[in-house]
Amino acid sequence: MTTQPPIAASGLAPDAVAELRAQLVALLGPEAVRAGEQTLGYRVAARVPPLAACPSTAQQVTEILALANELGAAVVPWGGGTAQALGYPPRAYDLALDVRGLNRVLAYEPADLTLSVEAGISFATLDRLLAEHGQRLPLDCARPEAATLGGIVAANLAGPRRLRHGTARDLLIGVCAALTDGTLAHGGGRVVKNVSGYDMMKLFLGSLGTLGVLVELNFKITPRPAQEVALALAFDHAEAALEAVAALLDSVLQPVALVVLDPVLAADLVAGARGWLLLVGFEGAPAATARQAREVRARTPAWRGSVVQEREGAAAAALWHAVTAFQAPDDEPRNRALLKVVVPPSEIGAVLTAVEESATAAGLHLRRAADAGTGIVYARLEQPAVAAAESFGRALAAVQAPLLERFGQAVVLSCPAAAKAQVPVWGREPSGIGVMRAIKHQFDPRGILNPGRFVGGI
Amino acid sequence: MERERLIRRLIQLVGPDGVVHDRDELALYEYDGSIDMHPPTAVVLPTRVEQVVAVVQLAAEEGVPVVPRGAGTGLSGGAIPTRGGIQIALTRMNRILELDYRNRRALVEPGVINLDLSVATQPRGYFYAPDPSSQKACTIGGNIAENSGGPHCLSYGVTTNHVLALEVVLPNGELIWTDGPDSPGYDLTGVLVGSEGTLGLVTKAWVRLTHLPEAVRVLLAQFGTVVEASSAVSAIIAAGIVPAALEMMDGTTCRAVEAAYQVGFPPDVGAVLLVELDGLDDGLDDLAAEIRRICTAQGARSVRVATSAEERAALWNARKMAFGAMGRLAPNYYLHDTVVPRTKLPYTLARVEEIGREYDLTIANVFHAGDGNLHPIVLFDRRVPGVVERVLRAGVDIMQVCVEVGGTLSGEHGIGLEKRDQMPLIFTAEDLAAMAKLKRSFNPRDLFNPDKIFPSRVSCGELREIQAGSRKAALLAEYGH
User: Fold this and answer.
1) ∠ CA A67-A73-A75, rounded to 5°
2) Which residues contact B336 (CB under 8 A, 6 or more apart)?
3) Contact B185/A455, CB-based, under 8 Å?
4) Residues of B in contact with A187 (CB under 8 A)
5) What is the Cα–Cα distance from B395 to B393, expressed in whole angstroms?
6) Which of A223, A431, A435 is closest, CB to CB, to B442?
7) N or C: at which end does chain A have fewer Cβ atoms within 10 angstroms?
8) For A7-101+445-457, CATH number?
9) Contact B100/A344, CB-based, under 8 Å?
10) Residues of B in contact with A194 (CB under 8 A)
11) Residue B465: is its pLDDT beyond 60?
12) pLDDT at B471 over 60
């Protein structure tokens, strides 16, 4: 955690805060309203709110939002707090809305392979329940005990096995959000195929709590695989690893993940690794995983690589967990940043090289992982010596700018709060920014939800 | 805007051969695959995105409604220009612009026919996965508007899972590109897919190409009753098996198919299940054996595994010909598209049968059983006095039953005009008000495809007023919530 002193960020006058507090206590009872020292755990970009509310029902969430809207109080929806590093600091921060009290399973019929939960349930709690029935929500999660399903959906978090299983976008079949006008809005349903009405799941997914507060989520789930296998292949050059990726993608094999690690990160994650690593995963029936692993072993020499490790079961899953943790945003780092560049997979090599050139020029240490099948490069940058926040911000901007220029987009997932004044953390404004602003205006006309944190200052 | 002047302006923008305005010719554009009809004022057939932008800008200036149209195969009335105006038919924008196998994607214009993309990519070992039954005719643009499904969507996902980015003309005439799912900002791509032409008009799409599987197995299981067959479906899903496709035809359908094409179904068959498994060859036979075991345990009379590609094709043909064969049974049919949780299939199908008896109507069932997507087909003869009303009432009862067990109105055909007045069965006034907010963000003047999705009894303007107040209470009372 940071050593920066917390900044009081309330946009409300003290008497308005007192008024909000009194009304929240009337709504929720005194135990569910926090103030003073008790809100330090809700810091975002070094800012702390004067108040936090801990509702336990969806109805209470709507009432809190209606109240905040009336008073013009800036609200940060809060799940596990694991992705609060994303985005700009909030323009104002009067109230943390902690939804972890909404943690019930609303419907679970294993034979339907569907599930309905409240948004504040943690990924680990849900996973334990599903495991009892041999099922899972096939998402990678960096901090499963803390992260909530609502947070995973709102921040659109995923990991390397998205190559085969998709992300929350492909698994979410129903949603209910509390809106700033005090209403509850449902979309989708509890069936796996549904075109009734607009796809509100897509609207809220990745919207970072700027349009509403998620209270209920319905998912498709899947059986746990009978077998999991992971192979680590070593290469002298990134190009050779990426050629192997292209060959695997153009084959009948069905890898669940294809991750390329640069030599520095490879040595961190896989003991004894030298050079570039390609991690290849398979899941499914033992006959199918064994055949695929066999084929990869047989083809590796032709790709100018060597198999350095092969893992099964929990050991394979642990490898994906380590990669997921590398790809996840940090809580308020001091002199570190995490960049994400999304490109067609054929451009990954160019991104890996470009980020290395600019990081070297900026004097930053670098570790890189690429979801090579999906086309996402994650780069962690670190300043070797502790330096002033401004100098780190300048160095980070110097790395991001050429990536934006060449690849159109480069997002800073996490960096020191102070550096956020120096870099456009969301990269370039997307072509649809006008419609995005219109959507924000329709759903949150007073701009009380996560104000200023999202793309284009939304 | 006066009709003659509108036509002159459109001809200036897209040329005389790009505008249809003769009243007889317009009759071809007044209907789609649904039951509703209304002619447009004029149809334009653009060939370039610049023309689409110009036409939409003209429509925005003049306040004229715009309704997009692909191949007109839609089943929910999505392409019906209920208020007249300009229909933009995208069938001439039908080029595959890029096949990027290295990145497993293709750039297509909206008028590309669904099957043509799979045919074009098959020699390189790829296909376009969403496969609606109309795939020989329907366009990818139309599929995007409706978020179309198909038999193989059970394991491969529906259209929305295969669309990566879109070039879109907005109702104000602005041309934008929406980004992939991992790009910063709201997921406009995801929101536009399935929005039935009410939010924007797609002029180009990057879609995903999928590698063909190494191996395929097709099984055909015959059952004495629909309830046994649907119990087998529930048991297969409960066992954690998600086949590539899992389709059911009931006895009525089988007899129609048999009468038309003689595929060898016994006359007393109650239902057949068609199960396709695909993927790696290794382990596939074990999975087929498991499905055979489940079907037998649920009372299957026989389970046949196709041994050749020809036999597989013959089994699939029987399924694909089913709708055509309905003509053997009755001159008219009304097709539904509800979805229920898969454990509720046996109960729901039994209730559908009861509803048929209650209204003295024959209801055939041929559907995507694996994802619980029912297609009850109500058979009738329009010439019989009073039958249409019975057909419609039976349809509402079927929807009610499906909603009661936790289901929904439409799995893949869309709401359109056809089911918009049933939306309050599954959504509250507040839910619809939130959807109206989304619509206003793109389409504030309601110029793009008006009268679709939202119930006719409530206008968007009224939904705007729904807040915590008396208006809301009145609407809630009206909807019976």
Assistant:
1) 95
2) B374, B375, B376, B377, B378, B395, B398, B399
3) yes
4) 431, 434-435
5) 5
6) A435
7) N
8) 3.30.43.10
9) yes
10) 339, 408, 410-411
11) no
12) no
What is the per-residue pLDDT for B314?
Answer: 85
- Which positions ≥6 away from B461 have C-beta within 8 Å? none
ipTM of the modeled complex: 0.97
**A168, closest residue in chain B (CA to CA):** B181
User: Residue A185's closest chain B neighbor by CA?
Assistant: B431
Cβ-contact B220, B290 below 8 angstroms: no
CB contact under 8 A, A195 and B427: no
Instruction: List CB contacts (< 8 A) between A292 and chain B.
Output: 280
Q: Give me the CATH topology for the region A105-223.
A: 3.30.465
Nearest Cβ partner for A287 among B283, B433, B439: B283
**Structure tokens that stand for B320 in this block:** 């694909």
Grade residue B474 by pLDDT with cuts at 50, 70 and 90. very low
Tell me the shortest Cα–Cα distance from A37 to chain B, in angstroms.
34
- On the question of a common fold for A227-325 and A328-421, the answer reads yes
Which CATH class, in words, describes the domain spanning A227-325?
alpha beta
> Domain boundaries in chain A?
7-101+445-457, 105-223, 227-325, 328-421
Distance CA A54, CA B174 (A): 43
CB contact under 8 A, B419 and A196: yes
Domains of chain B: 3-89 (3.30.43.10), 96-211 (3.30.465.10), 213-329 (3.30.70.2190), 427-479 (no CATH)
Task: Give residue-wise pLDDT tens across range B79-119.
Answer: 999 999 999 999 999 999 999 999 999 999 999 999 999 99
Determine whether the interchain pair A203/B191 forms a contact, defined as Cβ–Cβ distance below 8 Å: yes
CB–CB of A285 and B287 under 8 A? yes
The first and second tokens of residue A262, run together, are: 């640069």
* CATH code linked to domain A328-421: 3.30.70.2740
Nearest to B213 among A110, A252, A409 (CB): A252
Spell A104-118 as b/e; 16+ CB within 10 A means b: eeeebbbebbbbbbb
The answer to whether the Cβ–Cβ distance between A432 and B176 falls below 8 Å is: yes
Q: Which helix (H) or strand (E) holds B105?
A: strand B105-108
Q: What CA–CA distances, in Å, run from B447 to A202, B171, B380, B473? A: 23, 7, 36, 29
